[in-house]
């Protein structure tokens, strides 16, 4: 299935990695990571750093699935506000999830620094504005519970936001200075290339897993070419394409749309180049790039099939253009390229990380939701800890024991 279409900016911005290495023979290894996107790359990094043997398998070229289309806003804020999440999974667990996302941003920065991978990582402030005056009350509730749990947050009136950031928001906003942005494609390819060179990591592309069977002492996988892979553990890091490995549907599929502008003269950009998003559902989100371009995304809707998703692209471009021009009427915004993609979401806004009940040898690192990259960092750490018998207090918050209760 096509995970995206159109022309994702990151594929144009970066040189497509010329790496073609399909699995041609049977293979025996300790751990197989299925998926070479940012989730699989971070997972490989954690395992290699811990000295655990692993390999990566993907049916595509490296990181050319969802990661190539990611707009890569890194925020501790989750699609479901903390005040609402607290009513779904308990306030303590919701606060743990938010703090985990906050820590993951620093952890991603550290990973990129220690591997010397230039992924355009940039720390920025974030503005979460009320889409209408009625949502000001939601922001007040959210502000109070974040303060209670010592999360970084400020509540500013719309007049202050307009003055500080030159954006015509319709309501008040929550602001923090602990967010970031990056290039997910460059991060994934950079991390995998680093570990191939430094740790002998094996990456097999254009290799499709057709069957995965758990045994008493590991797993046996069969590829589309009939090759057999024997391993101790399997880590599935393929996003919503993990369906073939899951015994039950646990996510909803959503189509999303994004576009990027021509380069804009620096004086037209808003102060601090902060990330911007809103309370509406679906929400608009905005960021800049290191080349003074503006990325605008949103207009999400329930996914039906790739053809229908793609047929709406031109219509969605016009809608997104109108929205950005309403917020920034003085910016000479002109679309350079646009794309659409598919991602997964869950009812409580959280990813699924760990073992499916009864499957001890298969781990799922599924960073569902708008915070996919921060979830990917958390998932890599939790699973690596589990493989080393290290207790991780975050496991129960993101684990599969939520399935029967909330699904």
Give an overview in words.
The chain is an alpha+beta fold and 407 residues long. The chain has two domains: 13-70 and 185-250 and 349-406, FAD/NAD(P)-binding domain; 122-181 and 252-345, D-Amino Acid Oxidase, subunit A, domain 2 (D-Amino Acid Oxidase, Chain A, domain 2), CATH 3.30.9.10. It has twelve helices and 18 strands. Strands 1, 4, 5, 6, 7, 12, 13, 14, 15 and 16 form a ten-stranded mixed β-sheet that branches. Strands 2, 3, 8, 9, 10, 11, 17 and 18 form an eight-stranded mixed β-sheet that branches. The mean pLDDT is 93.
What is the name of the CATH class of the largest domain? Alpha Beta
CATH superfamily of the largest domain: FAD/NAD(P)-binding domain
Strand content: 25-35%
Q: Given the helix and strand composition, which structural class is it? A: alpha+beta
| Tally of individual domains | 2
Radius of gyration: 21 Å
Percent of residues in helical segments? 25-40%
* Outline: globular
- Return residue spans where pLDDT drops below 50 for at least 5 consecutive residues: none
Write a concise keyword list for the protein shown above:
single chain, 407 residues, alpha+beta, FAD/NAD(P)-binding domain, D-Amino Acid Oxidase, Chain A, domain 2, 18 strands, 27% strand, FAD-dep_OxRdtase
Break the fold down into its secondary structure elements and pairings.
Layout: E1 4-6, H1 9-13, E2 27-34, H2 38-49, E3 55-57, E4 73-74, H3 82-89, H4 91-114, E5 122-129, H5 136-148, E6 154-156, H6 158-165, E7 173-181, H7 184-198, E8 202-204, E9 209-215, E10 218-223, E11 228-236, E12 252-261, E13 275-278, E14 285-288, E15 294-302, H8 306-311, H9 313-327, E16 335-345, E17 352-355, E18 362-366, H10 372-387, H11 395-398, H12 403-406
Parallel strand pairs: 2-3, 2-11, 3-8, 5-13, 11-18
Antiparallel strand pairs: 1-16, 4-7, 5-7, 6-7, 9-10, 10-11, 12-15, 12-16, 13-14, 14-15, 17-18
Helix pairs in contact: 2-7, 2-10, 3-4, 4-10
